Amino acid sequence: MKRRTLLYAGMGAAAAASYPVWRYYSGKPSSLASVNAVSILGGEVTLDAFVLAALAKSIKGHLFFSGSEGYEIARRVRNRTIDKYP
């Protein structure tokens, strides 16, 4: 590997590592009062903000809603042919 190639790769890695992705993963539910959802049996249920906050605290990952900041980045699919909602 040439020194110039190594330097370019290092600069690219440093630029990617310094991108502020962390701001999209705050884990805080948005300011929605309630969310309509579908239960496992197919019936409609409404989840209020308290339940959503408890869910956000109980899971290891992050909870996003279709209008919240970071939703579009989190829902991106690497293979665009299987994207259900393009």
Strand order across the largest sheet = 1-2
Overall geometry: elongated
H/E series: HEEHH
Number of strands: 2
Report strand %: 5-15%
Helix content: 25-40%
Radius of gyration: 19 Å
> Stretches where pLDDT falls below 50 for ≥5 residues?
none
Output mean pLDDT.
Answer: 73
SS-derived structural category = alpha+beta
Distance between the termini: 40 Å
Helix run count: 3
Characteristics:
single chain; alpha+beta; two-stranded antiparallel sheet; 3 helices; 35% helix; 12% strand
Task: Characterize this entry briefly.
By secondary structure, the protein is an alpha+beta fold.
Written overview of the protein:
By secondary structure, the protein is of the alpha+beta class. It has a domain at 23-82. Helix content is 35%, strand content 12%. It is built from 3 helices and 2 strands, in the order αββαα. It has a two-stranded antiparallel ribbon with strand order 1-2. Strand 1 and strand 2 form a beta hairpin. The radius of gyration is 19 Å and the shape is elongated.
Helix and strand topology:
Elements: H1 3-18, E1 34-38, E2 44-48, H2 49-58, H3 71-74
Antiparallel strand pairs: 1-2
